[in-house]
Amino acid sequence: MPNLTPTLTQSRLLDVLLQHRLRKVIQLAGRRAHRKYLRAAFWSTLAAPMPNVLPFCL
Questions:
Q1: Fewer CB within 10 Å: C terminus or N terminus of the chain?
Q2: What pTM was computed for the model?
Q3: Contact 54, 46 (CB under 8 A)
Q4: Can you give the pLDDT at residue 5?
C-alpha cells in the first residue's frame, strides 16, 4: 500500500496559512491607519500657527 501524503486541507496547513495571511492583512491595515493619523496630526500642527502660508507651500 503506497504511503499517501495528506493534502493541504487534510493536514490543516491551509487553515494555518490563511490565518497567517489574514493576520498580516489586519496588521498592514492598522499600520496604514496609524500613518494616516500621524500625517493628519503633523499637518494640523503645521497649519495651526500659519494658516495663510500653508496653501502656498503645497
A1: N
A2: 0.60
A3: yes
A4: 84
